[in-house]
TrEMBL record:
Gene for this chain: cyrJ
A family per Pfam: Sulfotransfer_5
One GO molecular-function entry: transferase activity
Organism: Hormoscilla pringsheimii CCALA 1054
Gene3D superfamilies: P-loop containing nucleotide triphosphate hydrolases
InterPro entries: P-loop_NTPase
Entry annotated with the keyword Transferase: yes
Name of the molecule in the record: Sulfotransferase
Keyword Magnesium applies: no
Keyword tags: Transferase
């Protein structure tokens, strides 16, 4: 059942966009990736980018939800694996955005991200 569920999720993520839509933003957490079942090749057709946080802030936030978490539960190993996979298989370094930078200057950071992934930036993206 878990394998069927993962296939179902991947199929949903890869489904055609609704009529009239030309882009779709999806946010995922590396921790939830089940590479043994899902593989990674399905992510390559997408424009991948990585949103990161300061480790201390991320750990404090995780601690509120999971007081006794393991290193694996931080998702750092999977995030590094995912970043390396995208880099090696796309031939390009994927964009990495620090959450602080995004919060401090949303127009500039979103504009840079759009440029990096080949999407036209519009002010309406900020609301």
């Amino acid at each position: 059942p878990e394998e069927e569920y993962c296939r179902y999720v991947i199929d949903l993520l890869k489904a055609p966009l609704p009529e009239g839509k030309s882009i779709c933003y999806q946010k995922h957490q590396a921790y939830h990736l089940i590479e043994e079942i899902m593989g990674l090749e399905w992510i390559l057709p997408f424009s991948n980018c990585f949103l990161i946080r300061q480790p201390k802030e991320m750990l404090l936030s995780l601690h509120k939800i999971v007081p006794h978490f393991t290193f694996e539960e931080t998702g750092w190993s999977k995030l590094k694996r995912l970043f390396d996979y995208v880099h090696q298989n796309s031939g390009a370094i994927p964009p990495v955005i620090d959450a602080h930078d995004l919060l401090n200057d949303p127009p500039q950071m979103l504009s840079k991200l759009c440029q990096a992934v080949g999407v036209e930036f519009t002010e309406s993206m900020l609301s």
